[in-house]
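Risk register update: the risk of archive-format incompatibility is retired. Evidence:
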Amino acid sequence: MSFSQLQRLFFTGKSQTELRLRLLYQNGYLARPSEDQRRQVSEMIYWLDKKGAEIVANLNGTPLSEFYWRKEPRWFQLEHDLKVIDFRLDLLQASKSDASIRVETWVPESEFWAYPDEVTYNFQGKPLKRHIRPDGFFMLNTGEHRIRYLLEIDRSTEDNPRFLREKILPGLAYLKSEAYEKRFGHRSGRWLVVTTGERRLANMLSQARHAKVNGLFYFTTFDKITPDSLLHSPIWRRVDRAELVPLVFLDT
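Archived output:
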């Protein structure tokens, strides 16, 4: 997690955050980049060191030998991983501001990499297979409904002509699959795609229109997501609606 994310989650002031993180680092609970690694990131980041991992593992009564944690960031996609965390923090803050909605489940990307589901789907008359590894899965409880979402964080700035083949079609197949139902107990769900800008989003929408996605894919851009806008503001696009829509409808 980045310095600003940790401050947002646990602290109120910058100096308090700096002091606590420095002490945790100096005493072996947190790790941080070396001077060379620091040049690769826009701000300081931290992750669990061994002593910190032992404490977190013990909270659930898990031996350290059986506790999985990322011992070093995935440097090649660090910015992507931080964007996923930003989304999750926005989601948690948004749900705390709305007593009628609760985040009931969050399944991280690592779970899908460790135990991937495979789907078979057709593209241009040919059967294809693909492992499904969303950037996260979460479920919202509105009191009357449980709504399931799969998250796709897209940081590319170039148009991707393979988006239909590699994301939309396998994503639709997954929602209808036995593997999805076995994993989550239901065959309902929606894909959320968050991307870099309007041009990229328009390209995704154009490709999505070639498949019958209806309300199963929602698209927006990073700059539109805040804790205040994420759930109830019309910032999301669907191929079956001309207007922007909120993520959670009153009649969902």
